[in-house]
Structures are given as structure tokens and as C-alpha cells.
Amino acid sequence: FYGVGVSKFWSRDAMKVYSRVLSVASYISLRDTVSKERLLERCPLNCEVAVAPDPVFCLGFGESAEILKTQAHAQVLGINVIAFSIIKRFVPELKIGKKDYFDYYARLCHSASSDGLCPRLFSNGSDADWDDVLDLKEYLISVGVEVELEARPERPEDLVNSVRSFDYVIASRMHAGILAFSQKKPVAALVWDDKVSSVWKEVGGGRVTISSSIILEDNPWVLVKKALNYSLGLNINRKELEYVRRSIDTLLNNFPVN
Predict the structure, then answer these.
(1) Taking a C-beta distance cutoff of 8 angstroms, is the pair 91, 101 a contact?
(2) Which of the chain's termini has less CB crowding within 10 Å, N or C?
(3) How many other CB atoms sit within 10 Å of the CB of residue 4?
């Protein structure tokens, strides 16, 4: 098992299935320490459990900046939206309704537009996320906030191409942020679960993350800009990602060959 993250919520059926499957694993590599702690708390294991950064961090590693250069255009801020139901479940202490959640995006888009950026909503493609993206777009129009909408990705390469077209990315789904980083895009990652910040710490990017309490801020754009600016510096030094490649080699060396 490689590159796995572990949620804080497991059903009884999931516990039974995972325990049975993982009991025959010969090697497990998790993408962050929080996931490792959660797994070891719930499943008795008889193999090595390693921690290495998510392999998606390496997706664009080694490609020259020239290849990823975009044509001259208005600066686009890709805003990745996660379903409100996820926020409500994982961060109940925020005590917000869906309108409060949408108002956060309204403030964010308004401030970004005032800074000369073009906000564009996008999703990772899940049904719940996409439904909320459409509802959010309609709500933003109703309150006078101009925003564009990126087409829903149907395949992984669609999402890669979408992210490549942005100049900056605010990511609510973890892989939207990781993918943006791999494509050398300034990124700010929303933390709605402890594993999000833990994943980013594996590549020295702790300051790329922003607390979910930002949803309550009057001007969330101020905190987002700090994270985006920090990620610019982080993108310059990518030596940490060599560890990702080494972890893949470790996996292959530990994989039993019949």
C-alpha cells in the first residue's frame, strides 16, 4: 500500500475490511504522520509502516519552468471548492450554515478581484463538490460578485490541465493543492482535517496551509495572500521532493516478487 491517507472517520464495516486487508500487507507507506497515528490506533499491523510525501507532489518534478509557462493573460485565481457537507462534518466547531460558507467565498472573490485577479471556481470532480460549485456560482451572481467557472473534470488529465491554466490556486481539496504545487503554482491550502497540515509538513510547506477558521474572517484574502507568497519561496527549493522518489524506490525494493 503506497501513498495512502487515513481519515478520522471510519465506519464499523470499514474497520472490518481494512483490518482484514491490511493484515496481509508486506509494506505500507502513508503520506503523513497523522495518518500513520490513526492507522496504528485502529489496526494491528505486522509490517513496516513508513511515512513519505504524497507522490502527486512529484507529478511535475523535473520539468522546466519554460514548459509550464502560460501565455500572457489576465491573472487567474483558481478557487477549489469543497462541499459544505464536508466542512460541516469535519469542522463542526465553526457553527456555520451554507450561506455563511458561501459568503466566505464572496468576500474572497471580491477582494481578489479588487487586487486585479480573475477568480475562477473549480472542483476535483466529485458530485457533492460540483453541486456546491454550481450553487455557489449562482449565489455569487445574486450578490453581485463576478466569478468564472471552470468545466468539471471528467478525467485526471482534465484536472491537471485546469490547474496548469491558473496563475494562483486556493485549494480546499488536498490533491488540488498538491497538484498545484507540483505544477509550480503559488498555492494556499485550506485545513479542514489534521491530515491536511500534516501532509504539507512532509515537504516543508506548513505555512502554505490556512486554518478553516479563515471562513469566519472579515477579510480572508489577507491570510490567503500570505500563504500564496510563502509558497512562491517554497517552490524555488524542491530538494525535499527527492525524498518522494526515494520512497517509491523503497516501496519497489520491499514489494515481494513471485
Answers:
(1) no
(2) C
(3) 15
